Amino acid sequence: MELQQKLAILADAAKYDASCASSGAQRRDSRDGKGVGSTGGAGICHSYAPDGRCISLLKVLLTNRCLYDCHYCINRRSSNVRRAAFTPEEVVRLTLDFYKRNYIEGLFLSSGIVRSADHTMEQVVAVARTLREEHDFRGYIHLKTIPEASPELIELAARYADRISINLELPSQKSLDRLAPEKNLDRTKHAMGRIRLKLEDAADRKKNGDRRLRHATGQSTQVIVGADESTDADFLARSEELYGSYRLRRVYYSAFSPIPEPSAILPARPAPLLREHRLYQADWLMRFYGFHRSEILDPAKPHLDLHLDPKLAWALRNRALFPLDLRTATREQLLRVPGLGPRNVDRILALRRLAPIRLADLSRLRVPLDKVRPFLITTDHRPPATELESDRLLARFAPRPEQLELFC
Ligand code: SF4
Questions:
Q1: Which residues neighbour 238 within 8 Å (Cβ) at sequence distance 6 or greater?
Q2: Same domain, yes or no, for 389 and 275?
Q3: Is 367 in the pocket of ligand 1 (CB under 6 A)?
């Protein structure tokens, strides 16, 4: 099979993996003869480097053949799709070619499992090792690892990659038993635990002056939302454990979408993208805003409210804590105000040391005044007591009613 044909098959097969953090860029290309350039192309996706830069990656599978039969995956053993496999040398060549032409700044490499987890992992590591050692490749490399592979191979992968990940896919063993019978939650967590220790060891060595050491700086995972009956509470509980016990950099939530060659036990409809978005918002509240999972979810409901962002929903449930006086509120309190993010909170704290803060100052900081006004007291503004006490507040933020479709 021609290399280009393999690329078309194996790049397409890789597109279902969200754990390299697509930037969500709008798709544009010049195939109609208008303009120059493209945001996509076979195998090219966008991601964020550890320093926050948006980078383009060659995103491919080494092979879409697989011994496993995960129901949600187009590459599963029982799926009737066209199969292909790169050799490690072919992936190296493609990466270097694309890199030299300035199409990409790095590689995201995953693979179906062929022969055994170790055999597959050896091939994945061979690509990264050849790029780093034989070609002195300094671009970004993200490798997907296999929890069943030997710890030595996963450690080798971490030495050549900038980021490594293991997909958890579903938050409970019960769901895995049903949809991914060969996968085991405890095995995945053990592998994550070992990676965590290696990452911390490498970070210590770098801090102690080992400047030549090359090692991944973080690990991440992906979960599929809406393929089974797991609730948002289940997902957030698992994420909290992964951030706390395994120090994951990111948990990526990927809304389930029916694939070609679907398995009969999967839902026929895609999960709402808004559910994925709300989970990301809740995840950020846990990581950057000091919220505990139990505060984010309404105790009476296992799912996040699709109509309100989770921070606003929390503020509406806790109206008694507002309004906050901008002159005296702590950083922790300000982070809980709907419409204020960590950057603006820090700017407000710096500003208030110099002078009393007015609404116009917040406006200059691009704080959304409509959103924060009911929750804050400034020198020139105090919300009327009735505003927070009444259901008018909820009405103010609730989405406008829309004409429902008659047929769907
Ligand atoms: S192991 Fe990975 S590639 Fe294989 S079927 Fe499962 S999700 Fe798909």
A1: 168, 171, 172, 223, 251
A2: no
A3: no
